[in-house]
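re: the backbone from monday

yeah here it is again, tokenized this time
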């Protein structure tokens, strides 16, 4: 597993659990209403999703600058991965996110997806995601 300079798995897991604790019911309620109310949907996008995504993209850019994150990862698609996994688990499956779950999600799904290649001189054959106009 890559060694991310700022990655402290216990602190990250505790933060994820704190943020996700009790969020499932709120997420389900807002998502349900937002499908019927375009103004609410726009407000949620503007006040929640966009700032969250921008913060994740900035975090990814800092990881790229340190050589820890693949260069194509500083985009909307990669920034949505962790929130999508957490939302799926909490809101759609009605499961809590424990510290163990948070560590497993980050270490086995998120970090491998974001990690810069160990051999930067070797080219990846993976297609980078298409940039989304934000």
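seq for it, each position gets an aa:
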């Amino acid at each position: 597993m890559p060694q991310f300079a700022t990655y402290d798995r216990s602190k990250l897991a505790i933060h994820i659990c704190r943020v996700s604790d009790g969020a499932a019911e709120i997420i389900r309620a807002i998502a349900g209403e937002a499908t019927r109310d375009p103004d609410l949907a726009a407000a949620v996008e503007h006040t929640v999703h966009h700032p969250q995504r921008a913060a994740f993209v900035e975090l990814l850019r800092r990881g790229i600058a340190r050589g820890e994150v693949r260069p194509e990862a500083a985009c909307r698609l990669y920034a949505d991965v962790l929130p999508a996994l957490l939302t799926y688990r909490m809101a759609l499956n009605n499961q809590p996110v424990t510290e163990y779950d948070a560590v497993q999600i980050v270490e086995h799904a998120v970090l491998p997806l974001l990690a810069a290649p160990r051999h930067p001189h070797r080219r990846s054959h993976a297609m980078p995601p298409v940039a989304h106009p934000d």
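The chain has a mean pLDDT of 80. The chain has six helices and no strands.
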